[in-house]
Every structure is written in C-alpha cells, then in structure tokens.
Amino acid sequence: MQQQSAVPYSIIVFAGLLPWQFFSNALTECSNSLIGNTNLITKVYFPRMIIPVSSIFTSFIDFFISFVILLGLFLVYGYTPPAEIFAMPLFWIFAFLASFGPGLYLTALNVKYRDFRYVIPFIVQFGLFISPVGYSSTQIPEKWQWLYSLNPMVGVIDGFRWCIVTDAPNPMLKYPFYISLGVTIFFLWLSIWQFRRMEKNFADLI
Description:
mainly alpha; 67% helix
C-alpha cells in the first residue's frame, strides 16, 4: 500500500493475508481431497466433485478465525473500517472460485500422477510472492498491470483490501480486476471440463 496511507501497516498487510491464507489452505485441501478419500471413492458411487467442494468449505473455518484476529487488530489500533467491509462476502465468493478452479484441476492430476502433490507447496509458496499480500498492486507499473492481473488472486486481494482499508482504491473501477475475474471464470470452466472427463476413471486410477 502507498506510504501516505493513514491505516496501520499491520492492518494493510493482514487485509492481504486474510484472502491469501484462505486460498492457500483451500487449494492444498482441495488438491489432496480425492487421494485422501480413496476408500470412499472406490466403494460408493456419488458425484466426485462433492469431495473437493466440501474440502474448500472446511477452509472457511480458518478464514473465520483469521477474521476474528483482524477484528482484534481493529480494537488494538482503534481503527474503524469503511462501510465497504459489508461487501466482503462478494470477494469471499471470488476467493472461493479462484481456489476451486485450480484445486479441482490439481486434484484430478493428483489421482493420475501421484507425485504431482509434492509440487503443490511450491506453487503455493511461489504464488505468495506474485500476489499483493505485503504490498499494493498499484505499485506495479501501469504497462504491466494486465500481465500481473492474470493472477486471479490479485483481484481477490485488491477487493479484500478495499473492503478493509479506508483509503484503498476500488479495484472494480479499473480493468485489471476484470482480467483476474475473467481468468478465474475461464480456469473454473476448464477445470470442471477436465474433471468431468477424468471422473469416470478415478476409481480405477486410485
């Protein structure tokens, strides 16, 4: 975030860390969900997509705990968030979709290529550095904003920060936000298509 912000830096960083923690937990849990329920998949038939979806919903518990900690920071600093904080559920849905798309794709790959699960922690760690968790995406040069926004979490984090930080810009007023949203929707469609294509072979592969 910009240096002239009157909001405590701890709150600015936590506003970015809140959605990122949800994303990293949800992605990890979702990508390992089918492997972790091998017995269930081989014995009972049901829509397999239920498992990765439910694994992401469990990550909401950690999100809620982190949000309570954020409220504690508000009290410590005597900070009053803007009215935009009531728009946060919209960006949580965005975060859910941004997690579900890659998670669904990765869990399908995990079933076929078991060693692929060891790559996931690296993906999560690398994603932290290319997402605006400890800094504002406005620090990225304008000419590279479109490229930077190909990371779906850029739009998610910018949205959360706008809801929490008083002087944060509204990301929905600029085109990079819609690039992140578009990539999220496209990846969600691609992942569902890939998952459906591989689903009939999961019981045999597992």
